[in-house]
Amino acid sequence: MGDNFTVNMDEFLPLRDVVFNTLRRAILTGELKPGERLMEIHLANRLGVSRTPIREAIRKLELEGLVTMIPRRGAEVAQITEKSLQDVLEVRRALDALCVELACDRITSEEKEALKQACDEFEKATKTGDVTTIAGADVALHDIIVRATGNQRLIQLINNLSEQMYRYRFEYIKDEKGHDNLVNEHRMIYESILHGDKEKAAEAAKLHIDNQEKSIIRQIRMEREQQLKKKDRNV
Amino acid sequence: MGDNFTVNMDEFLPLRDVVFNTLRRAILTGELKPGERLMEIHLANRLGVSRTPIREAIRKLELEGLVTMIPRRGAEVAQITEKSLQDVLEVRRALDALCVELACDRITSEEKEALKQACDEFEKATKTGDVTTIAGADVALHDIIVRATGNQRLIQLINNLSEQMYRYRFEYIKDEKGHDNLVNEHRMIYESILHGDKEKAAEAAKLHIDNQEKSIIRQIRMEREQQLKKKDRNV
DNA sequence: TAATTGCATTTTGTATACAAGGATTGTACT
DNA sequence: AGTACAATCCTTGTATACAAAATGCAATTA
Protein backbone atom coordinates (compact mmCIF):
# COMPACT_ATOMS: atom_id res chain seq x y z
CA MET A 1 0.00 0.00 0.00
CA GLY A 2 1.22 3.44 -0.83
CA ASP A 3 3.10 2.12 -3.81
CA ASN A 4 0.24 2.89 -6.14
CA PHE A 5 1.52 6.42 -6.47
CA THR A 6 4.92 7.39 -7.67
CA VAL A 7 5.46 10.80 -6.17
CA ASN A 8 7.82 13.39 -7.42
CA MET A 9 10.44 13.85 -4.70
CA ASP A 10 10.21 17.55 -5.35
CA GLU A 11 6.78 17.46 -3.81
CA PHE A 12 8.39 16.76 -0.45
CA LEU A 13 10.55 19.84 -0.59
CA PRO A 14 9.43 22.66 1.69
CA LEU A 15 7.71 25.41 -0.24
CA ARG A 16 10.60 27.76 0.46
CA ASP A 17 12.89 25.47 -1.52
CA VAL A 18 10.42 25.12 -4.35
CA VAL A 19 10.14 28.90 -4.48
CA PHE A 20 13.91 29.27 -4.19
CA ASN A 21 14.51 26.97 -7.13
CA THR A 22 11.76 28.58 -9.16
CA LEU A 23 13.01 32.11 -8.62
CA ARG A 24 16.62 31.14 -9.19
CA ARG A 25 15.75 29.48 -12.45
CA ALA A 26 13.74 32.52 -13.50
CA ILE A 27 16.65 34.81 -12.77
CA LEU A 28 19.26 32.64 -14.45
CA THR A 29 17.21 32.16 -17.59
CA GLY A 30 16.57 35.88 -17.78
CA GLU A 31 12.84 35.55 -17.25
CA LEU A 32 13.34 37.93 -14.35
CA LYS A 33 15.56 40.71 -15.60
CA PRO A 34 18.28 42.57 -13.71
CA GLY A 35 16.86 45.48 -11.78
CA GLU A 36 13.36 44.00 -11.73
CA ARG A 37 11.67 44.29 -8.37
CA LEU A 38 10.63 41.16 -6.51
CA MET A 39 7.45 42.08 -4.67
CA GLU A 40 6.36 39.57 -2.13
CA ILE A 41 2.59 39.65 -2.45
CA HIS A 42 2.88 39.65 -6.20
CA LEU A 43 5.17 36.61 -6.22
CA ALA A 44 3.05 34.91 -3.57
CA ASN A 45 -0.07 35.26 -5.70
CA ARG A 46 1.74 34.19 -8.82
CA LEU A 47 3.13 31.05 -7.20
CA GLY A 48 0.06 30.34 -5.12
CA VAL A 49 1.76 30.43 -1.72
CA SER A 50 1.91 32.88 1.16
CA ARG A 51 4.57 35.50 1.72
CA THR A 52 6.50 33.45 4.26
CA PRO A 53 8.14 30.95 1.89
CA ILE A 54 8.74 33.76 -0.59
CA ARG A 55 10.64 35.75 1.99
CA GLU A 56 12.74 32.78 3.07
CA ALA A 57 13.62 32.02 -0.52
CA ILE A 58 14.65 35.63 -1.06
CA ARG A 59 16.97 35.46 1.95
CA LYS A 60 18.85 32.63 0.28
CA LEU A 61 18.94 34.33 -3.10
CA GLU A 62 20.28 37.37 -1.31
CA LEU A 63 23.23 35.44 0.13
CA GLU A 64 23.84 33.81 -3.23
CA GLY A 65 24.19 37.22 -4.78
CA LEU A 66 21.35 36.81 -7.23
CA VAL A 67 19.16 39.47 -5.64
CA THR A 68 20.00 42.75 -3.97
CA MET A 69 18.16 44.01 -0.91
CA ILE A 70 17.25 47.67 -0.76
CA PRO A 71 16.35 48.74 2.76
CA ARG A 72 12.64 49.29 3.25
CA ARG A 73 12.11 48.76 -0.44
CA GLY A 74 12.55 45.04 -0.87
CA ALA A 75 14.46 42.81 -3.22
CA GLU A 76 15.40 43.25 -6.83
CA VAL A 77 17.25 41.06 -9.29
CA ALA A 78 20.96 41.81 -9.03
CA GLN A 79 22.50 43.83 -11.79
CA ILE A 80 25.32 42.18 -13.67
CA THR A 81 28.04 44.61 -14.52
CA GLU A 82 31.12 43.94 -16.58
CA LYS A 83 33.17 44.42 -13.44
CA SER A 84 31.19 41.92 -11.38
CA LEU A 85 31.52 39.35 -14.12
CA GLN A 86 35.23 39.87 -14.43
CA ASP A 87 35.46 39.43 -10.67
CA VAL A 88 33.63 36.14 -10.89
CA LEU A 89 35.73 34.92 -13.78
CA GLU A 90 38.95 35.88 -12.04
CA VAL A 91 38.01 33.64 -9.15
CA ARG A 92 36.78 30.89 -11.40
CA ARG A 93 40.04 30.82 -13.29
CA ALA A 94 41.85 30.02 -10.05
CA LEU A 95 39.29 27.50 -8.86
CA ASP A 96 38.97 25.72 -12.17
CA ALA A 97 42.74 25.36 -12.26
CA LEU A 98 42.65 23.93 -8.74
CA CYS A 99 39.89 21.63 -9.86
CA VAL A 100 41.76 19.99 -12.68
CA GLU A 101 44.93 19.75 -10.60
CA LEU A 102 43.09 17.91 -7.87
CA ALA A 103 41.33 15.81 -10.46
CA CYS A 104 44.74 14.74 -11.81
CA ASP A 105 45.58 13.27 -8.43
CA ARG A 106 42.26 11.84 -7.42
CA ILE A 107 40.30 10.76 -10.46
CA THR A 108 39.32 7.10 -10.46
CA SER A 109 39.46 4.87 -13.47
CA GLU A 110 35.66 4.80 -13.66
CA GLU A 111 35.63 8.57 -13.70
CA LYS A 112 38.29 8.60 -16.40
CA GLU A 113 36.06 6.43 -18.50
CA ALA A 114 33.05 8.66 -17.81
CA LEU A 115 35.12 11.70 -18.72
CA LYS A 116 36.13 10.18 -22.02
CA GLN A 117 32.52 9.43 -22.83
CA ALA A 118 31.47 12.93 -21.83
CA CYS A 119 34.06 14.33 -24.22
CA ASP A 120 32.73 12.23 -27.04
CA GLU A 121 29.17 13.14 -26.13
CA PHE A 122 30.07 16.79 -26.24
CA GLU A 123 31.61 16.50 -29.67
CA LYS A 124 28.54 14.68 -30.86
CA ALA A 125 26.33 17.37 -29.33
CA THR A 126 28.14 20.13 -31.20
CA LYS A 127 27.33 18.35 -34.41
CA THR A 128 23.61 18.43 -33.69
CA GLY A 129 23.85 22.20 -33.44
CA ASP A 130 21.11 22.21 -30.79
CA VAL A 131 22.08 24.71 -28.15
CA THR A 132 20.27 23.00 -25.29
CA THR A 133 21.90 19.68 -26.06
CA ILE A 134 25.34 21.27 -26.23
CA ALA A 135 24.85 23.14 -23.00
CA GLY A 136 23.72 19.94 -21.29
CA ALA A 137 26.75 18.00 -22.54
CA ASP A 138 29.02 20.81 -21.42
CA VAL A 139 27.59 20.82 -17.91
CA ALA A 140 27.84 17.04 -17.71
CA LEU A 141 31.50 17.08 -18.68
CA HIS A 142 32.49 19.78 -16.24
CA ASP A 143 30.47 18.09 -13.54
CA ILE A 144 32.54 14.95 -13.80
CA ILE A 145 35.78 16.86 -13.37
CA VAL A 146 34.50 18.94 -10.48
CA ARG A 147 33.18 15.88 -8.70
CA ALA A 148 36.42 14.01 -9.21
CA THR A 149 38.10 16.45 -6.81
CA GLY A 150 36.10 14.98 -3.96
CA ASN A 151 36.10 18.42 -2.36
CA GLN A 152 32.56 19.27 -1.35
CA ARG A 153 33.26 22.90 -0.67
CA LEU A 154 34.96 23.34 -4.03
CA ILE A 155 32.07 21.67 -5.79
CA GLN A 156 29.61 24.01 -4.12
CA LEU A 157 31.64 27.14 -4.86
CA ILE A 158 32.23 26.33 -8.51
CA ASN A 159 28.58 25.56 -9.04
CA ASN A 160 27.61 28.86 -7.49
CA LEU A 161 30.10 30.82 -9.56
CA SER A 162 29.07 29.06 -12.76
CA GLU A 163 25.51 30.03 -12.03
CA GLN A 164 26.32 33.70 -12.27
CA MET A 165 27.11 33.22 -15.93
CA TYR A 166 24.26 30.96 -16.93
CA ARG A 167 22.33 33.84 -18.41
CA TYR A 168 25.08 34.11 -21.00
CA ARG A 169 25.63 30.43 -21.53
CA PHE A 170 23.32 30.02 -24.46
CA GLU A 171 24.57 33.01 -26.35
CA TYR A 172 28.10 31.95 -25.60
CA ILE A 173 27.56 28.52 -27.07
CA LYS A 174 25.74 29.91 -30.06
CA ASP A 175 28.48 32.48 -30.45
CA GLU A 176 31.31 30.02 -30.91
CA LYS A 177 31.80 29.54 -34.60
CA GLY A 178 32.10 25.88 -35.37
CA HIS A 179 32.58 24.83 -31.75
CA ASP A 180 35.88 23.33 -32.76
CA ASN A 181 37.71 25.39 -30.19
CA LEU A 182 35.46 24.13 -27.42
CA VAL A 183 35.91 20.52 -28.42
CA ASN A 184 39.66 20.96 -28.59
CA GLU A 185 39.82 22.67 -25.21
CA HIS A 186 37.86 19.87 -23.66
CA ARG A 187 40.08 17.26 -25.28
CA MET A 188 43.14 19.05 -24.01
CA ILE A 189 41.81 19.07 -20.45
CA TYR A 190 40.79 15.44 -20.72
CA GLU A 191 44.18 14.31 -22.05
CA SER A 192 46.05 16.23 -19.34
CA ILE A 193 43.97 14.74 -16.55
CA LEU A 194 44.31 11.29 -18.10
CA HIS A 195 48.09 11.56 -17.94
CA GLY A 196 48.08 13.29 -14.60
CA ASP A 197 49.85 16.31 -16.03
CA LYS A 198 48.77 18.99 -13.58
CA GLU A 199 50.51 21.93 -15.17
CA LYS A 200 49.15 21.27 -18.61
CA ALA A 201 45.68 20.65 -17.18
CA ALA A 202 45.73 23.92 -15.27
CA GLU A 203 46.85 25.83 -18.34
CA ALA A 204 44.14 24.25 -20.43
CA ALA A 205 41.49 25.05 -17.84
CA LYS A 206 42.61 28.66 -17.64
CA LEU A 207 42.58 28.99 -21.40
CA HIS A 208 39.08 27.57 -21.43
CA ILE A 209 37.91 30.24 -19.00
CA ASP A 210 39.75 32.99 -20.85
CA ASN A 211 37.93 32.16 -24.04
CA GLN A 212 34.60 32.13 -22.27
CA GLU A 213 35.44 35.47 -20.73
CA LYS A 214 36.17 37.05 -24.08
CA SER A 215 32.92 35.82 -25.51
CA ILE A 216 30.80 36.87 -22.57
CA ILE A 217 32.35 40.30 -22.20
CA ARG A 218 31.75 40.91 -25.89
CA GLN A 219 28.11 40.04 -25.37
CA ILE A 220 27.70 42.32 -22.40
CA ARG A 221 29.15 45.22 -24.33
CA MET A 222 26.82 44.53 -27.23
CA GLU A 223 23.83 44.39 -24.90
CA ARG A 224 24.78 47.66 -23.29
CA GLU A 225 25.21 49.36 -26.62
CA GLN A 226 21.78 48.21 -27.69
CA GLN A 227 20.26 49.52 -24.50
CA LEU A 228 21.93 52.87 -24.98
CA LYS A 229 20.62 53.07 -28.54
CA LYS A 230 17.14 52.25 -27.38
CA LYS A 231 17.32 55.06 -24.84
CA ASP A 232 18.53 57.50 -27.49
CA ARG A 233 15.67 56.60 -29.72
CA ASN A 234 13.15 57.18 -26.95
CA VAL A 235 14.63 60.57 -26.06
CA MET B 1 19.23 70.39 9.32
CA GLY B 2 19.37 66.68 10.05
CA ASP B 3 23.02 66.89 11.00
CA ASN B 4 22.29 67.35 14.64
CA PHE B 5 21.97 63.63 15.15
CA THR B 6 24.54 61.00 14.46
CA VAL B 7 22.73 57.69 14.48
CA ASN B 8 24.15 54.24 14.86
CA MET B 9 23.48 52.55 11.57
CA ASP B 10 23.22 49.22 13.33
CA GLU B 11 20.00 50.30 14.91
CA PHE B 12 18.42 50.44 11.48
CA LEU B 13 19.32 46.87 10.60
CA PRO B 14 16.29 44.62 10.17
CA LEU B 15 15.88 42.19 13.04
CA ARG B 16 16.71 39.28 10.75
CA ASP B 17 20.18 40.74 10.21
CA VAL B 18 20.69 41.40 13.90
CA VAL B 19 19.69 37.80 14.60
CA PHE B 20 21.85 36.55 11.74
CA ASN B 21 24.93 38.34 13.09
CA THR B 22 24.19 37.23 16.63
CA LEU B 23 23.77 33.59 15.75
CA ARG B 24 26.77 33.57 13.44
CA ARG B 25 28.94 35.07 16.13
CA ALA B 26 27.64 32.52 18.64
CA ILE B 27 28.47 29.66 16.30
CA LEU B 28 31.91 30.95 15.38
CA THR B 29 32.93 31.60 18.97
CA GLY B 30 31.75 28.15 19.95
CA GLU B 31 28.98 29.43 22.21
CA LEU B 32 26.68 27.31 20.10
CA LYS B 33 28.35 23.97 19.68
CA PRO B 34 28.38 21.69 16.62
CA GLY B 35 25.35 19.43 16.62
CA GLU B 36 23.36 21.70 18.90
CA ARG B 37 19.78 22.18 17.80
CA LEU B 38 18.53 25.64 16.93
CA MET B 39 14.90 25.69 18.02
CA GLU B 40 12.97 28.64 16.75
CA ILE B 41 10.72 29.43 19.71
CA HIS B 42 13.58 28.96 22.09
CA LEU B 43 15.83 31.36 20.17
CA ALA B 44 12.96 33.79 19.68
CA ASN B 45 12.35 33.99 23.42
CA ARG B 46 16.03 34.28 24.16
CA LEU B 47 16.53 37.13 21.70
CA GLY B 48 13.21 38.78 22.38
CA VAL B 49 11.87 38.61 18.84
CA SER B 50 9.31 36.49 17.01
CA ARG B 51 10.03 33.38 15.01
CA THR B 52 9.96 35.15 11.65
CA PRO B 53 13.32 36.95 11.84
CA ILE B 54 14.84 33.84 13.43
CA ARG B 55 13.75 31.73 10.50
CA GLU B 56 15.06 34.19 7.95
CA ALA B 57 18.40 34.34 9.71
CA ILE B 58 18.60 30.55 9.72
CA ARG B 59 17.99 30.48 5.97
CA LYS B 60 21.09 32.59 5.49
CA LEU B 61 23.16 30.56 7.92
CA GLU B 62 22.05 27.50 6.03
CA LEU B 63 23.41 28.82 2.74
CA GLU B 64 26.61 29.90 4.46
CA GLY B 65 27.12 26.35 5.64
CA LEU B 66 27.11 27.17 9.33
CA VAL B 67 23.91 25.27 10.06
CA THR B 68 22.47 22.08 8.63
CA MET B 69 18.79 21.62 7.97
CA ILE B 70 17.18 18.33 8.89
CA PRO B 71 13.76 17.88 7.29
CA ARG B 72 10.89 18.29 9.74
CA ARG B 73 13.38 18.57 12.55
CA GLY B 74 14.83 22.03 12.00
CA ALA B 75 18.31 23.46 12.07
CA GLU B 76 21.40 22.42 13.95
CA VAL B 77 24.89 23.83 14.13
CA ALA B 78 26.97 22.26 11.36
CA GLN B 79 29.47 19.65 12.40
CA ILE B 80 33.06 20.39 11.53
CA THR B 81 34.90 17.32 10.42
CA GLU B 82 38.54 17.03 9.58
CA LYS B 83 37.53 16.39 6.00
CA SER B 84 35.35 19.48 5.74
CA LEU B 85 38.14 21.61 7.14
CA GLN B 86 40.68 20.20 4.75
CA ASP B 87 38.25 20.97 1.94
CA VAL B 88 37.98 24.56 3.07
CA LEU B 89 41.72 24.92 3.43
CA GLU B 90 42.37 23.41 0.05
CA VAL B 91 40.22 26.09 -1.53
CA ARG B 92 41.67 28.82 0.63
CA ARG B 93 45.18 27.91 -0.40
CA ALA B 94 44.25 28.59 -4.01
CA LEU B 95 42.30 31.75 -3.27
CA ASP B 96 44.90 33.22 -0.94
CA ALA B 97 47.52 32.64 -3.61
CA LEU B 98 45.28 34.40 -6.12
CA CYS B 99 44.81 37.18 -3.61
CA VAL B 100 48.47 38.03 -3.18
CA GLU B 101 49.10 37.70 -6.89
CA LEU B 102 46.37 40.21 -7.67
CA ALA B 103 47.59 42.40 -4.83
CA CYS B 104 51.04 42.46 -6.44
CA ASP B 105 49.53 44.03 -9.54
CA ARG B 106 46.95 46.31 -8.01
CA ILE B 107 48.11 47.50 -4.63
CA THR B 108 48.33 51.29 -4.31
CA SER B 109 51.12 53.10 -2.55
CA GLU B 110 48.77 54.05 0.30
CA GLU B 111 47.88 50.40 0.73
CA LYS B 112 51.55 49.47 0.69
CA GLU B 113 52.12 51.89 3.52
CA ALA B 114 49.13 50.53 5.42
CA LEU B 115 50.40 46.99 4.88
CA LYS B 116 53.79 47.90 6.28
CA GLN B 117 52.17 49.40 9.34
CA ALA B 118 49.93 46.36 9.78
CA CYS B 119 53.02 44.13 9.70
CA ASP B 120 54.67 46.21 12.40
CA GLU B 121 51.46 46.27 14.42
CA PHE B 122 51.26 42.51 14.23
CA GLU B 123 54.79 42.07 15.44
CA LYS B 124 54.06 44.46 18.29
CA ALA B 125 50.89 42.53 19.09
CA THR B 126 52.74 39.23 19.37
CA LYS B 127 54.94 40.81 21.99
CA THR B 128 51.96 41.70 24.17
CA GLY B 129 51.04 38.03 24.21
CA ASP B 130 47.34 38.94 24.34
CA VAL B 131 45.50 36.54 22.08
CA THR B 132 42.65 38.93 21.21
CA THR B 133 45.07 41.67 20.23
CA ILE B 134 47.08 39.29 18.06
CA ALA B 135 43.99 37.93 16.38
CA GLY B 136 42.81 41.47 15.68
CA ALA B 137 46.14 42.49 14.17
CA ASP B 138 46.15 39.36 12.05
CA VAL B 139 42.70 40.05 10.66
CA ALA B 140 43.62 43.68 9.95
CA LEU B 141 46.69 42.65 8.01
CA HIS B 142 44.95 40.07 5.89
CA ASP B 143 42.10 42.46 5.30
CA ILE B 144 44.40 44.97 3.66
CA ILE B 145 45.75 42.38 1.26
CA VAL B 146 42.35 41.00 0.39
CA ARG B 147 40.93 44.45 -0.21
CA ALA B 148 43.90 45.42 -2.37
CA THR B 149 42.70 42.92 -4.97
CA GLY B 150 39.69 45.11 -5.67
CA ASN B 151 37.73 41.94 -6.43
CA GLN B 152 34.47 42.10 -4.50
CA ARG B 153 33.59 38.48 -5.10
CA LEU B 154 37.00 37.30 -3.96
CA ILE B 155 36.75 39.43 -0.82
CA GLN B 156 33.40 37.92 0.01
CA LEU B 157 34.53 34.34 -0.61
CA ILE B 158 37.71 34.60 1.42
CA ASN B 159 35.86 36.16 4.32
CA ASN B 160 33.34 33.37 4.27
CA LEU B 161 35.99 30.66 4.13
CA SER B 162 38.02 32.28 6.91
CA GLU B 163 34.93 32.25 9.04
CA GLN B 164 34.78 28.50 8.99
CA MET B 165 38.03 28.40 10.93
CA TYR B 166 37.41 31.17 13.41
CA ARG B 167 36.53 28.70 16.13
CA TYR B 168 40.11 27.50 15.97
CA ARG B 169 41.73 30.85 15.54
CA PHE B 170 42.41 31.51 19.19
CA GLU B 171 43.87 28.13 19.91
CA TYR B 172 45.90 28.38 16.78
CA ILE B 173 47.41 31.68 17.82
CA LYS B 174 48.05 30.45 21.33
CA ASP B 175 49.52 27.28 19.92
CA GLU B 176 52.29 28.94 17.93
CA LYS B 177 55.37 28.91 20.03
CA GLY B 178 56.98 32.32 19.97
CA HIS B 179 54.92 33.58 17.07
CA ASP B 180 58.18 34.13 15.24
CA ASN B 181 57.05 31.97 12.39
CA LEU B 182 53.89 33.98 11.96
CA VAL B 183 55.76 37.27 11.95
CA ASN B 184 58.24 35.93 9.41
CA GLU B 185 55.50 34.59 7.16
CA HIS B 186 53.78 37.95 7.19
CA ARG B 187 57.02 39.75 6.43
CA MET B 188 57.69 37.42 3.57
CA ILE B 189 54.27 38.08 2.06
CA TYR B 190 54.65 41.81 2.60
CA GLU B 191 58.08 41.96 0.97
CA SER B 192 56.94 39.94 -2.02
CA ILE B 193 53.93 42.16 -2.63
CA LEU B 194 56.07 45.25 -2.19
CA HIS B 195 58.40 44.11 -4.95
CA GLY B 196 55.57 42.79 -7.08
CA ASP B 197 57.05 39.28 -7.03
CA LYS B 198 53.94 37.23 -7.68
CA GLU B 199 55.53 33.79 -7.52
CA LYS B 200 57.24 34.40 -4.23
CA ALA B 201 54.10 35.98 -2.81
CA ALA B 202 51.98 33.02 -3.82
CA GLU B 203 54.48 30.59 -2.32
CA ALA B 204 54.55 32.54 0.92
CA ALA B 205 50.77 32.67 1.11
CA LYS B 206 50.49 28.92 0.54
CA LEU B 207 53.09 28.24 3.18
CA HIS B 208 51.14 30.43 5.57
CA ILE B 209 48.01 28.39 5.01
CA ASP B 210 49.88 25.11 5.24
CA ASN B 211 51.17 26.00 8.67
CA GLN B 212 47.72 27.02 9.83
CA GLU B 213 46.39 23.75 8.49
CA LYS B 214 48.86 21.70 10.45
CA SER B 215 48.05 23.50 13.66
CA ILE B 216 44.31 23.32 13.24
CA ILE B 217 44.26 19.68 12.21
CA ARG B 218 46.35 18.84 15.26
CA GLN B 219 43.79 20.57 17.42
CA ILE B 220 40.85 18.80 15.88
CA ARG B 221 42.51 15.44 16.45
CA MET B 222 43.18 16.33 20.06
CA GLU B 223 39.61 17.44 20.57
CA ARG B 224 38.29 14.24 19.08
CA GLU B 225 40.54 12.11 21.23
CA GLN B 226 39.34 13.88 24.33
CA GLN B 227 35.75 13.33 23.31
CA LEU B 228 36.39 9.64 22.76
CA LYS B 229 38.02 9.35 26.18
CA LYS B 230 35.05 11.09 27.78
CA LYS B 231 32.71 8.62 26.13
CA ASP B 232 34.82 5.67 27.30
CA ARG B 233 34.73 6.92 30.84
CA ASN B 234 30.97 7.25 30.76
CA VAL B 235 30.49 3.76 29.33
C1' DT C 1 3.41 77.92 -12.53
C1' DA C 2 6.17 75.73 -9.25
C1' DA C 3 6.81 73.99 -4.80
C1' DT C 4 5.45 72.12 -0.57
C1' DT C 5 2.54 69.72 2.43
C1' DG C 6 -0.57 66.21 3.55
C1' DC C 7 -3.08 62.11 2.52
C1' DA C 8 -3.66 57.61 0.50
C1' DT C 9 -1.68 53.56 -1.25
C1' DT C 10 1.77 50.27 -1.49
C1' DT C 11 5.12 47.40 0.50
C1' DT C 12 8.06 45.77 3.74
C1' DG C 13 8.98 44.17 8.65
C1' DT C 14 7.27 41.66 12.48
C1' DA C 15 4.14 38.95 15.18
C1' DT C 16 0.87 35.47 15.82
C1' DA C 17 -2.33 31.85 14.68
C1' DC C 18 -3.19 27.40 12.74
C1' DA C 19 -2.15 22.83 10.81
C1' DA C 20 0.54 18.71 10.23
C1' DG C 21 4.14 15.59 11.21
C1' DG C 22 7.39 13.22 14.58
C1' DA C 23 8.92 11.95 18.86
C1' DT C 24 8.22 10.59 23.39
C1' DT C 25 5.89 8.83 27.14
C1' DG C 26 2.56 6.17 29.31
C1' DT C 27 -0.48 2.38 29.44
C1' DA C 28 -2.32 -1.96 28.40
C1' DC C 29 -1.79 -6.45 26.97
C1' DT C 30 0.87 -10.54 26.28
C1' DA D 1 8.90 -7.64 32.30
C1' DG D 2 8.83 -6.43 27.66
C1' DT D 3 6.60 -4.92 23.59
C1' DA D 4 3.23 -2.61 20.97
C1' DC D 5 0.02 0.87 20.43
C1' DA D 6 -2.07 5.20 21.37
C1' DA D 7 -2.34 9.81 23.00
C1' DT D 8 -0.16 13.98 23.90
C1' DC D 9 3.21 17.31 23.31
C1' DC D 10 6.68 19.62 20.81
C1' DT D 11 8.38 21.57 16.69
C1' DT D 12 8.35 22.92 12.17
C1' DG D 13 5.89 24.65 7.95
C1' DT D 14 2.62 27.86 6.25
C1' DA D 15 -0.74 31.53 6.29
C1' DT D 16 -2.50 35.74 7.79
C1' DA D 17 -2.94 39.91 10.46
C1' DC D 18 -1.11 44.18 12.01
C1' DA D 19 2.22 48.10 12.21
C1' DA D 20 5.46 51.28 10.33
C1' DA D 21 7.82 53.35 6.64
C1' DA D 22 8.15 55.08 2.00
C1' DT D 23 6.45 56.52 -2.27
C1' DG D 24 3.38 58.84 -5.28
C1' DC D 25 -0.25 61.96 -6.14
C1' DA D 26 -3.08 65.73 -5.50
C1' DA D 27 -4.40 69.94 -3.69
C1' DT D 28 -3.35 74.28 -1.99
C1' DT D 29 -0.62 78.25 -1.59
C1' DA D 30 2.94 81.55 -2.72
Question: How would you describe this protein?
Answer:
The structure is a homodimer of 235-residue chains. The first copy, chain A, has helices spanning 15-28, 40-47, 51-64, 82-106, 109-128, 131-148, 152-163, 166-175, 180-194, 198-234, and strands spanning 37-38, 67-70, 74-77. Chain A has a 3-stranded antiparallel beta sheet with strand order 1-3-2. Chain A is globular, with a radius of gyration of 20 Å. The first copy, chain A, folds into 2 domains: 15-77, Winged helix-like DNA-binding domain superfamily/Winged helix DNA-binding domain (Arc Repressor Mutant, subunit A); 82-224, Up-down Bundle (Four Helix Bundle (Hemerythrin (Met), subunit A)), CATH 1.20.120.530. The first copy, chain A, has 235 residues and is mainly alpha-helical. Chain A binds chain B through residues 12, 14, 16, 52, 55-56, 59-60, 62-65, 71, 84, 87-88, 90-91, 94-95, 97-98, 102, 151-154, 156-157, 161, and chain B through 12, 14, 16, 52, 55-56, 59-60, 62-65, 71, 84, 87-88, 90-91, 94-95, 97-98, 102, 151-154, 156-157, 161.
